Amino acid sequence: METADYSLFSTLDTDEVTVFADLILPIPVPRLFTYRVPRGMADLLRIGARVIVPFGKKNSRVLTAIVAKLHNSPPTAYQARYISEVLDEYPLVTGYQLELFRWMAEYYMCTIGEVMNIALPSGLKISSQSKVQYNPDFDYPELLTDFEAVLLAELKKQPALSYDELGRLAGEGTNVPALIKSLVGKQAVIVFEEVKEKYIPKMVRKIRLHRNYEEREQLLVLLQRLEKLPKQQEVVMRYLSHVPMQRSPELNQKGLDKTILNQDDELSQSSLATLVKNQVFETFEVIQPRFADAHVPQAEIRLTEYQQRASDDIMAQFESRNVVLLHGITGSGKTEVYINLIQQALSGGSQVLYLLPEIALTTQIVVRLQRVFGDKMGIYHSKFSDNERVEVWKGVISGRYQFVVGVRSSVFLPFDNLGLLIVDEEHETSYKQHDPAPRYHARDVAIMLAHWQQAKVLLGSATPALETYYQAKQGRYGLVELFNRFGNATLPDIRLVDTKREKQQKSMKQEFSSVLLESLGQNMERREQSILFQNRRGYSPYMQCEDCDWTAECDNCAVSLTYHQRDAELRCHYCGHKEQVPRTCPACGSTKVKTIGFGTEKLEDQLQIFFPDSKILRMDLDTTRAKNAYQQIIQEFETGGIDILVGTQMITKGLDFDNVSLVGIFDADRLIRFPDFRATERSFQMLTQVSGRAGRRAGRQGTVLIQTANPQQSILQRIIQNDYIGLYEEEIQERQNFNYPPFSRLIKLTIRHTDKRISQQAADRLAAELTDALGSSRVLGPEEPLIERIRNQFLYDILIKLERDKVNVKAVKAFIQERINDILTDKGLRQVSIVADVDCL
């Protein structure tokens, strides 16, 4: 692995030899850029440090780059520009991370700049803002319009103004870019970039007694002097009650949060201000971590006999294998096993990364982990602000956080001493990044990261991905199984409700079968909770005219618009386009426009009608956009404040509620019939996971009701029997027969263009060239995907299937990239976009 060669500078006379740096820039270009290091910076620069550099025509852009290599060889193809500024005294990116960036760029067929751009939190990337200032050398006032002259006179009074500030000064309706262009052309102003680092430490204003009053004698004199000013004396006494400086004088220098003294009446605030003015108190600021020290008492974790046996088996298998799969049924207590292993790794001085598929899952598990690890644990996910993520990043480097729990982006954190990586619910599709590049899978990246750091990986799931279970059965991974529910809780009773028959009998009420409604009512009488699962958000999937069959469709995508009743609008879930709900049909003018189908919002509304006295809440993307929305919903449900929770797949992922005894599942047939080779596997995983939310308390069996129009489907019988092994054996044979993973690797190429003809032309040419070289059995397509137009771009897919043991995958990827480059350099096809998705899902 490449690390900084610090000896370079001890043997180099930097006055005579020029130092160059190869930099990773956060842009989609396939190579590093070489910049010249100014002599004054040569001793400061380290591999992995961030620098600011100019980029683009006439240095029009300012970018944050990472130093990847230091050397003495100037570039031959272009003249090297100078690095503008060094941001870090110590590297914020480790050698392991740089190695990971290189591997991901090659494996996932993207650029190292794209990897860097998604790996670094935004707070570590510099932003630049254009500023305008008066040109002191301006000598041609006769060139100015009257308006420009007035504006320039105001600008002379300011050091500089941003574009927005200049716009406010010029007044509403002013074309600011045209105005600036005119002033620049007349050489009246100078435009420059003000560079700012996005990360801003959290500052707290504190207050302390002036040093003159730290001694007891001076303090007594002060209090006597203030006897005639009782309000001021009260403020001093209040300060001393919080800061017992007579016992420990050094406490005064630490001071007191100013808000503590300011929290009472306005008179005391005025008195405090007077005391500061008279130098009795002094104010100062300190940096405060955004994650306050929890100091949670350490809870003791006691494993059951089965959990202890599983933990021991995992440790034993780690002796000979680097990756172990823990296959444990829902409710078996895998989290306690994880905690036991984390404690062992931390006690050995190693770092630990615990990956979870989604923020919804982190909310509940984080609380359990904090009871054990307190403030030693860092949390990292996208709902945190830029500043919060930067603090966790720097906390890993400083050693404050030896243990981090987070979502897929956590694999990019700057670990350098990993001992254990846990990937919980490893089968989850949320671990796969779809846009933008790199389109990586966090589970696979975690395994590579562990390989470089000689760490161990534990994959956990009740319903493992078929590829993962296959690797375990082949002996490449270790396998430990845990088939006893924690506390002797029993698996739920799963029943199928025939909606086709209920419709014939006219016993369905809206989307609810009579069986489900009756069970919900009985559950509430017992004061027990219910969860209802429907994997569609919104009120209805589409609106349609009864007279002419017109359907509301997105202007930019080939999809119907989803009706959201609360906001009274139609939305596209692909591009975000919104429309008002039409009162009449736009095609024929009919008033018979109705909603078709149902989503979580509609179920919530119907439940309010059926059970008006119940507390019903919805958990989907629409209700959880705010930072703490997940946590608030889960906490309310945990404390019994909600009777029925309606949600999408985010309620399936590892949530643990003791009082849930009923789970209802809608629209199971749509999941099963989805046209994808993984549809059966995914349906089993999703329906089994959501079923596992029921009956997790010992001594009470939960009930799961699956509404289906075809109860005879074999996949539903396997779910009832919790027969993962049977599913695996059936599916793995199908995969082998048709050469799908794990027997092959898949690469999907998506061709996009706003002109359908050009998109098809590029797709046909690319497919033909690939077929000539790889054969028709390995290249499928091009074909239009299910949704053939998104954001006004027409799509074509080419699927490449490569045998695992017969093909040099690295060479094939290089060949594919060459063919893509040929098309993108064709004059008639330059505007085409081609996206490679390696190991596509």
TrEMBL record:
GO biological process: DNA recombination; DNA replication initiation; DNA replication, synthesis of primer; double-strand break repair
Binding site for Zn(2+) 2: C554, C557, C572, C575
Cofactor: Zn(2+)
Gene field: priA
Source organism of the structure: Spirosoma oryzae
UniProt protein name: Replication restart protein PriA
Function of the protein: Initiates the restart of stalled replication forks, which reloads the replicative helicase on sites other than the origin of replication. Recognizes and binds to abandoned replication forks and remodels them to uncover a helicase loading site. Promotes assembly of the primosome at these replication forks.
Domain Helicase C-terminal: 580-751
InterPro entries (alphabetical): DEAD/DEAH_box_helicase_dom, Helicase_ATP-bd, Helicase_C-like, P-loop_NTPase, PriA, PriA_3primeBD, PriA_3primeBD_sf, PriA_C
Domain Helicase ATP-binding per the UniProt entry, residue ranges: 315-482
Family membership noted in the UniProt record: Belongs to the helicase family. PriA subfamily.
Enzyme class: isomerase
Co-factor note (free text): Binds 2 zinc ions per subunit.
